[in-house]
Write a structure and sequence with these properties.
Layout: H1 2-31, E1 35-41, E2 44-49, E3 52-57, E4 66-71, E5 83-85, E6 93-98, H2 100-116, E7 151-152, E8 158-159, H3 161-164
Antiparallel strand pairs: 1-2, 1-4, 2-3, 3-6, 5-6, 7-8
Length: 166
């Protein structure tokens, strides 16, 4: 029982952390069209702009260190594909990763985790969620999954066949 609670708690934390990360990445993707934000430190410059995270490796230490934010020219293009520019004469190389890649990488497992934990209301198929009210065939008419027959007692509470045998 303790293990199940631990798994459930971890899954709940991962679902919410994934959701927050997804929203932050999606916001960054959208805002990177109009704004450039980055960190300048040492021989690396990491910037989000044009829908991508761009890492520039310099051959010498940069002059300014710290965070920078500035407005882009509205006509700047969006980077939708991975890009690598090898070191040129100045010794600078550039790597660009489009933000849609981590967005999909975080969004898909987060969506599946939320989907897995969805609750099926009573009287619905456990496989597809179809409403089984009035179903007497013993199979879900939507997906064909066998469902246990339920009867009601005089007070209208659903009862399974096992309860009637007691």
């Amino acid at each position: 029982m303790t293990t199940m609670r631990t798994i459930s708690r971890k899954r709940r934390i991962l679902k919410w952390a994934g959701s927050v990360a997804y929203v932050l990445l999606a916001t960054t993707l959208i805002l990177s069209r109009w704004w450039t934000a980055g960190w300048l430190g040492g021989t690396y410059i990491v910037v989000t702009k044009g829908g991508a995270v761009v890492v520039t490796v310099l051959d010498q230490t940069g002059r300014e260190l710290g965070w920078k934010v500035r407005r882009n020219v509205p006509t700047s293009r969006m980077d939708w594909w991975f890009r690598r520019t090898p070191a040129n004469l100045s010794g600078m190389s550039v790597f660009a990763t489009p933000l849609w890649a981590p967005l999909v990488g975080i969004g898909l497992p987060t969506f599946l985790a939320w989907r897995r934990d969805r609750r099926i209301p009573p009287g619905h198929c456990a496989s597809c969620g179809y409403d089984l009210t009035g179903n007497v065939s013993g199979r879900c008419s939507e997906c064909g999954t066998p469902v246990p027959q339920q009867t009601t007692c005089d007070d209208g509470i659903p009862r399974s066949p096992e309860d009637e045998n007691k």
